[in-house]
Amino acid sequence: MMTKETAKNFYDFCINNFHHIEKIVFFGGEPCINVDVMEYLCSLFYNYKFDKSLEELPKFGIITNGTIWNERLISVIKKYITFITVSIDGEKKINDSNRVDKQGKGTYNRIAKFIDYTKHIPSVKVQYEATYTKQHIKENITKDDISLFFRKRFNIEGFLVDEISIEEDNHKIDFSVQNVDNLPECFTDILWAISFKHHLESCQISRLQFAVSTSGLIYPCHMDVGIESLNLGDVKGDNIFNSKHIQDHYPLFNLINNKEKLCPNCWCQNLCECCPKSFFL
């Protein structure tokens, strides 16, 4: 887990290098296990006398499995947190087949209690992140069914991601008009972009966001944490975003938001929203 010393190093890194920080998101693992450091880091920013170095307070969010519930955590959420993303896969039967605790018991009831309470905190916006799995397909549950369930049961919005095994087995799924709701998200995004003449953009890793590990190492994206070849530096070091070494070693960072230069001859340039991570592996 991250220590208070590392959290202070991250805070100093932010204050010394950025004029604006839109949001800071605690993720894991399970960040709510480390509520002391969450509270400590938030308090550092709340007590900062904002000036030209950092002009305004960032928003704080949590990505959580929603299984931890205690008065201390709720107190920190009420005081500092403005948005929470809860990992839950739908109705009890489906969720509990995918998400279990150390004792092998389903977690739906605990997650539901967490959502039911936190969604009524006026300063907090709660959303869900559901993983669309083979179990959903087996039970004839569509992505629309999942979204409808969350609206009816919790009155919250959110988003779905495809299970890796589904992405790998895309060729086995019925790609019919009747099954369009269950097509891979990347495919439906392309259909949407073509229909409404909308340009898709790649995730702005390192340019608009970055991730910090529990030990203070910096990575382009939270999906990259722990991959040694993608370590960009340390929060105890210099501002990596102005580093000539980083720019020379990862020249594509400066091109991610400029597809005309990155892929000048690609016919599907404006339909591409692939994960830029693949450029660096």
From TrEMBL:
<protein>
    <submittedName>
        <fullName>SPASM domain-containing protein</fullName>
    </submittedName>
</protein>
<dbReference type="GO" id="GO:0016491">
    <property type="term" value="F:oxidoreductase activity"/>
</dbReference>
<dbReference type="InterPro" id="IPR023867">
    <property type="entry name" value="Sulphatase_maturase_rSAM"/>
</dbReference>
<dbReference type="Pfam" id="PF13353">
    <property type="entry name" value="Fer4_12"/>
</dbReference>
<dbReference type="InterPro" id="IPR058240">
    <property type="entry name" value="rSAM_sf"/>
</dbReference>
<dbReference type="InterPro" id="IPR013785">
    <property type="entry name" value="Aldolase_TIM"/>
</dbReference>
<dbReference type="InterPro" id="IPR023885">
    <property type="entry name" value="4Fe4S-binding_SPASM_dom"/>
</dbReference>
